[in-house]
Design brief:
The protein is an alpha/beta fold. It has three domains: 174 residues, Thiamin diphosphate (ThDP)-binding fold, Pyr/PP domains (Rossmann fold, 3-Layer(aba) Sandwich), CATH 3.40.50; 164 residues, TPP-binding domain (Rossmann fold, 3-Layer(aba) Sandwich), CATH 3.40.50; 168 residues, Thiamin diphosphate (ThDP)-binding fold, Pyr/PP domains (Rossmann fold), CATH 3.40.50. It is built from 20 helices and 18 strands. The longest helix is centred in the N-terminal third of the chain and has 22 residues. The N and C termini lie far apart (89 Å). The C terminus is likely disordered.
Length: 578
């Protein structure tokens, strides 16, 4: 064997040992973007049947696709790309994975160290590329002829463990290879032998300070308060546990859609989902002052709930932080309980906590029923944008996944989704709350089962090339096309003369035709009834479909404001409270 042939074989054997270690440690999915420098790893992955390889040309889209798979599967997913700017395209998804605590393993192929900093093509400093957004970064250097298989397998287990604990997130493994990258000709490969089969690595629970938990429970017992649940990757038992606490304290529970509390068979009797309407002034509930607030999960999406929390900054605000992070952008938390929320809830349920006076919870539930009845009446209006989401959710079978894009769709989902016994699972990218990569993330979710993606027109345009990966996935992409950045119509810049040019930015893109260019079925829905029928057909047909729903933006803004005004009026009939 010639020396170049031997070096190519060395690269491949090295890659095989690492991939075999990742397989043994539990890796099941890789998202691969083609390239030269990553060839040894790509070939090793493609020849490892225990790991599913998803091939996507666009590295930016590939990173968000991996993010979606990791969110839905609740386990680490690996990314592989070649050196240079290819790896830099991962940055938006890496930032989202960091702030949303999603486990991603970044396998960045690299040039050998003698080429870095010397003007070689496709060569950048990849080890400092993602900065503080990483949980860890490892750079073992190019393969040496005497490389240790045991070390590579241990490294594989370590990086997957670092992805998951103590705080899930992205970990980078920067892998340099010298040329020739592969041996010439086809080579039959198998697992590299030697080394331990599996190293068991557990995921520890962050246990809270039990005295702090006990003191906090005593402080809220018998007093009027509210539980607020934002989006989070909660364990399955969380819904029943937090609803049991609400029953024990007889308090309202304000649940955002991404908390996954609105739908399911748990006790939803104290859950309120129309707070975006009944907490707006002049509703009397907007002026009510609870003595305590318990916040679980991410900070709320809607400005209404954010401002209500700000107005109640003097209440005893308790934040449950499962991952230990400080989630207090208002800087008004009185207590931060760092630890597993289930452990906290278990301790509280074991305490003799007393309920608040019944008229406290009753006022919130009365407002909930009043606004729910108003929303049901508005749903009959065929041109009301707020009727689109409940119509969509009504059509979905139990167990379906829903990915909601940022900007207006997530806010309309919050305001109009309602709730029910049917189990639905909701996903979103609320770590950074950007509109980039939303379709790619939804396609990642769809890799684990059928999914509907609800996106705005600019959000889809940001990620349109991701439609290339839609084939073979069971996904319906619903595009709410309101002619640009409609969310800015609700913000102060809407009155500026430069508004349309710099903020609204209306586009002239035929989404149905664009979908067809990628081999995706598409349909434009002119009415709510037409949308429901088209959605029904798409769900029955399976595979990828794009449904575009044109919206009259100005009419939609006027209707939203009219609905909120009516909701505040019906909430004004609430009984007086002490």
């Amino acid at each position: 064997m010639t020396q170049p042939q031997a070096h190519g074989l060395l690269n491949l054997r090295y890659a095989q040992a690492l991939v075999d270690g990742l397989r043994a440690a539990g890796l099941r999915d890789l998202v691969l973007s083609p390239g030269s420098r990553s060839s040894p790893l790509a070939l090793a992955f493609l020849r490892q049947p225990a790991i599913s390889s998803h091939v996507l040309v666009d590295e930016r889209s590939a990173a968000f696709l991996a993010l979606g798979i990791a969110k839905a599967a609740r386990r680490p997913v690996a990314l592989l790309a070649t050196s240079g700017s290819a790896v830099a395209n991962w940055l938006p998804a890496v930032v989202e994975a960091d702030l949303a605590a999603v486990p991603l393993l970044l396998l960045s192929a690299d040039r050998p160290p003698e080429l870095v900093g010397w003007g070689a093509s496709q060569t950048i400093d990849q080890q400092r590329l993602f900065g503080a957004h990483l949980r860890a970064c490892h750079a073992p250097g190019p393969p040496a002829p005497d490389f240790a298989v045991d070390y590579l397998r241990s490294l594989a287990r370590r990086v997957l463990g670092e992805c998951c604990s103590p705080l899930p997130g992205p970990v980078q493994l920067n892998l340099a290879f010298r040329e020739p990258l592969l041996p010439a000709g086809a080579l039959a490969t198998g697992d590299v032998t030697g080394g331990p089969a599996v190293l068991a690595v557990g995921r520890p629970r962050l246990l809270p300070d039990r005295q702090l938990v006990a003191d906090s429970g005593a402080a809220i017992s018998g007093r009027p308060g509210v539980i607020v649940c934002g989006g989070d990757d909660n364990p399955p038992a969380f819904a029943a546990a937090v609803c049991a606490l609400a029953r024990q304290l007889d308090c309202p529970l304000l649940a955002e859609p991404l908390s996954n509390l609105r739908f399911g068979g748990h006790d939803r009797s104290r859950i309120c989902v129309h707070y975006d309407a009944f907490l707006r002034p002049p509703s009397p509930l907007a002026a009510r002052r609870p003595e305590w607030l318990l916040r679980c999960g991410s900070f709320p999406v809607t400005r209404t709930l954010q401002e209500w929390l700000r107005a109640n900054r003097d209440a005893r605000q308790i934040v449950l932080a499962a991952d230990g992070r400080w989630r207090d952008p208002l800087h008004c938390a009185a207590v931060l309980i760092q630890g597993d929320p289930l452990a906290v809830l278990d301790d509280w349920q074991a305490m003799p906590l007393r309920a608040a006076a019944p008229d406290w919870r009753g006022a919130f539930l009365h407002a909930e029923r009043q606004v729910a009845a108003l929303a049901a009446a508005w749903r009959s209006r065929d041109d009301f944008e707020g009727a689109l989401i409940p119509a969509l959710l009504d059509e979905l079978p139990a167990g379906h996944r829903v990915f909601c894009g940022n900007s207006l769709p997530i806010r309309d989902l919050d305001a109009f989704s309602g709730g029910g016994e049917k189990v639905l699972q909701f996903f979103g990218n609320r770590g950074v709350s950007g509109i980039d990569g939303n379709l790619s993330t939804a396609l990642g979710v769809a890799s684990t089962g059928p999914c509907v993606a609800l996106l705005g027109d600019l959000t889809l345009q940001h990620d349109l090339a991701a439609l290339a990966a839609a084939g073979g996935r069971d996904i319906v992409v619903v595009v709410i096309n309101n002619g640009g950045g409609g969310i800015f119509e609700y913000l102060p810049m809407a009155t500026l003369p430069e508004f349309e040019r710099a903020w609204l930015t209306p586009q002239k893109l035929d989404f149905v035709a664009a979908a067809a260019a990628f081999g995706v079925a598409g349909e434009r829905c002119a009415s709510l009834g037409g949308f429901a029928c088209a959605l029904r057909r798409a769900l029955q047909r399976g595979g990828p479909t794009l449904l575009e729903v044109p919206i009259d933006r100005r009419r939609s803004v006027a209707q939203h404001r009219a609905f909120w005004q009516e909701a505040a009026a019906v909430a004004g009939g609430l009984p007086a409270m002490p």
